[in-house]
Write a sequence for this structure.
């Protein structure tokens, strides 16, 4: 039997991922795409519109797994490009520091963050984007909200898994939560 050489390092077959998810935490990144003015103040927050596996439509942050042997900044860039398009022009600092760490649990109410598939640890970043954002992959749309609109009960209600809480933390971190 010939050995198979894996060419896509870091990718797991669906059954392997499911097995690993049931036994250990998985590392993720969450990114809050923002527009900033000339002084660096956040003026708008970009939220994706997605259809979940159960058919529900919700607002979401850019989010995804960090692959084996992948730097955090590369994971951020990969997920931002995947969701916002190749000309979003994200500006990730030379030394990216998360504004918080979010722990998603399959059991509800352990933390404000819930993912029924797994226990995930996510490093959360605020990432200014300067280019033209066009949603791709499984994102239906991208809408830009002012910080006040993003923190409103209407938008918060459209977010699932605790991402609304994470968004409010991001807004507080940049001094835009009123």
């Amino acid at each position: 039997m010939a050995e198979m050489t894996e060419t896509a390092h870091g990718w797991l077959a669906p059954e392997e991922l499911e097995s690993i998810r049931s036994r250990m935490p998985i590392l993720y990144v969450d990114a809050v795409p923002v527009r900033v003015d000339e002084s660096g103040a956040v003026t708008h927050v970009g939220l994706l519109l997605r259809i979940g596996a159960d058919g529900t439509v919700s607002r979401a942050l850019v989010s995804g797994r960090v692959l084996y042997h992948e730097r955090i900044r590369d994971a951020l860039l990969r997920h931002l490009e995947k969701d916002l398009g190749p000309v979003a022009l994200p500006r990730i600092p030379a030394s990216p520091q998360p504004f918080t760490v979010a722990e998603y649990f399959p059991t509800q109410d352990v933390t404000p963050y819930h993912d029924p598939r797994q226990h995930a640890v996510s490093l959360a970043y605020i990432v200014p984007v300067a280019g033209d954002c066009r949603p791709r992959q499984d994102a239906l749309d991208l809408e830009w909200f002012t910080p006040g609109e993003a923190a409103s009960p209407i938008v918060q209600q459209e977010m699932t898994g605790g991402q609304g809480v994470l968004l409010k933390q991001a807004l507080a971190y940049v001094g835009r939560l009123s």
